[in-house]
Amino acid sequence: MLKIKNLHASVDGKEILRGINLEINAGEVHAIMGPNGSGKSTLAAAIAGKEEFEITEGEIYLGGENLEDNSPEERAHKGIFLSFQYPVEIPGVSVTNFIKTAINESRKGRGQEDMPANQMLKLIREKAELLDIDRKFLSRSLNEGFSGGEKKRNEIFQMAMLEPKLAILDETDSGLDIDALRIVANGVNKLRSKDRAIMVITHYQRLLEYIIPDFVHVIHNGKIVKSGTKELALELEEKGYDWLKNEAVV
User: Fold this and answer.
1) DSSP tag of 76
2) Which DSSP symbol is given to 19?
3) Domain extents for the chain?
4) Alpha-carbon dihedral angle through residues 65, 172, 9, 68, given to the nearest 10 degrees
C-alpha cells in the first residue's frame, strides 16, 4: 500500500529526513516511534504532501503510484488520511457538515457525483454507532470546546467516514488520559481492515498496549535505525532511546 524509497525532506533549508525506507502492506499496522525532533511528524507530513516540507530526494508510492506531483488534496482523494496531533477548532461548522463536505469533495476528486443525502445519513449513523458516538456530538461545531479525547475521537470518526487506504495517526495519544486513550484505541481497532494500512506515530508504548502493531520502527536523526515487532516497543519502554543512538549513522 505504501512504499517509501530513500526519502530526504527539509524544512526551511534544514534537512530533517535523511534517507527513510519503509513499506507497509494493506492490512498491516506499523508503529513509528522515536524521541522528540527525530522526524516522525515530518515523515507523516511528507506523505500527506504538506507544502512546507520539501522532498529533496527519494520517492513515495501509494498502491504503486508515485505521489511526487500530487497536491495534499489529490493525495487525500487517492486515499491518504492524516489525523492531526492538534486538531483545529472551526466554529459554526458542525461535525456532520464538515464530514459531508469532505466526503463529497473526495468523490468529486475521483470523478464521482455527491453521495445521495439518504446514503450519507445512513453512513453517518452506522459509523457513529460503530464508534459509540452520541448523535448530539455530531451537531456540535467542529472541535470547538472539545476535550482532548473528544477531538481525537472526532478524528477517528472522520477516518471511519472517509475509509482511507492509508491512515496516518500522528500522536493520537497526545494529551489523553487513560480512559480517553482506550476509547480512541478501541475506535482504531474497529477500523482495522485487510484493505487498509495504518501508521501510528507515538512516543510511548502505552498506546501500543491497546493498538497492537504488526511492526515497530524507530526513527532517530531522520533515519529508521531499528525495526521489529511489538516487543521492540516494550524494550524501548524499559530502556528509553539512548541505547539506539549508537545505531544511527549520521
Assistant:
1) H
2) E
3) 2-249
4) 20
What value, to the nearest 5°, has the Cα angle with vertex 197 and ends 128 and 82? 65
Give the dihedral of Cα atoms 55, 59, 62, 64; nearest 10 deg.
Answer: 160
3-state secondary structure of 3: strand
Those residues whose C-beta lies under 8 Å from the C-beta of residue 214, and which sit 6 or more positions away, are 28, 29, 30, 229
For residue 214, name the pLDDT band (cuts at 50, 70, 90).
very high
- The helix-helix angle for 95-109 and 148-162 (nearest 10°) equals 30
- List all residues 6 or more positions away from 159 whose beta carbon is below 8 Å from its beta carbon: 81, 83, 167, 191
What nine digits make up the cell of 32?
Answer: 513509528
What is the pLDDT, as a whole number, of residue 98? Answer: 95
Grid cell locating 75: 493525495
**Tens digits of per-residue pLDDT, 65-115?**
999 989 999 999 999 999 887 888 999 999 999 999 999 999 998 899 999
d(CA 192, CA 96): 23
247 pLDDT tier (thresholds 50, 70, 90): low
The pTM of the full predicted model, rounded to 2 decimals, is: 0.89
Largest CA distance in the chain: 57
30 and 4 in contact (C-beta within 8 Å)?
Answer: no
Class of domain 2-249: alpha beta
Q: Could you identify the residue written with the cell 475521537?
A: 153
User: What are the residues whose beta carbons fall under 8 Å from the beta carbon of 67, sequence distance 6 or more?
Assistant: 47, 49, 60, 61, 75, 78
What are the Cα distances from residue 137, in Å, to 145, 150, 158? 11, 9, 13
